[in-house]
Model the fold of this input.
Amino acid sequence: MVNEPGTFRYRRRLRPTRRGKAMLLLGGALVAAATIAAPLLVLKDGPEAGAEEATSLVVPEGWRARQIYAAVDRALGLQPGTTEKAVPGARLPLPTAAHGNPEGYLFPATYPIRSDTTPRSLLRYMVATASQRFGNDRIAAGAPHNGISAYQAVTLASVIQAEADTASDMGKVGRVVYNRLRRDMPLQMDSTLNYALGRSTLDTTTEDTRIDSPYNTYRRKGLPPTPIGNPGEQAMRAAIGPAPGPWLYFVTVGPGDTRFSESYAAHQRNVVEFNRNRESAATAG
Done:
């Protein structure tokens, strides 16, 4: 949600992929459950044909790199922290602007896990998949058209992924970001604060907006310095081809009902409705 300091702000939890929802465990824990016996990809040094029975790891859209590292550790039966420690030596095919940080490039998808799968092979395959599915040429062409770099396009896509309540809202969220950037307004995105604080919460306090962090888009103008999660294709499309519109604010007042507005007064009315709906839900609960 976009808002101004001193008012109540709403945030959703990170959305799983539509395929991944049924496989997620409570509390955002992992994932690698199903056994599949179709021809699979061997994830060692790259995709190769194979027929070994394997389990699968579902990486939901919007998950952060550390969530993915922990999921890989669990899927491979490794000690916590093993996958994260493997990143510097994995020689991931990342753009120079990423400075070795794979955040934003661990593509959300379902990955087969075989007996010879390693953290290095799995991470390299995720990054290679991101390059393939995002389409380097498309990003390279679309990003400058909007006045941003290809790396900033991935960063913007990660914000859209975290902020949009539905896939149909993504283009509008992208437009809000561009409109605020072009007016030299801070983005004021709660998702970037959550990333700085290492959490995913529904609420952001005024005190939170005062933290000293490059990801605090209440205090610092422009996009955050890196992606804040790993976006899917729809979010990337919204980042390089946002919907047309004059909006500067948005708030999700109820499931599937996100209100976009140009004026702060209209936005405040929507926030009042959100608060009323939330209070009603809490009373009913």
Summary: The radius of gyration is 19 Å. The chain has nine helices and nine strands.
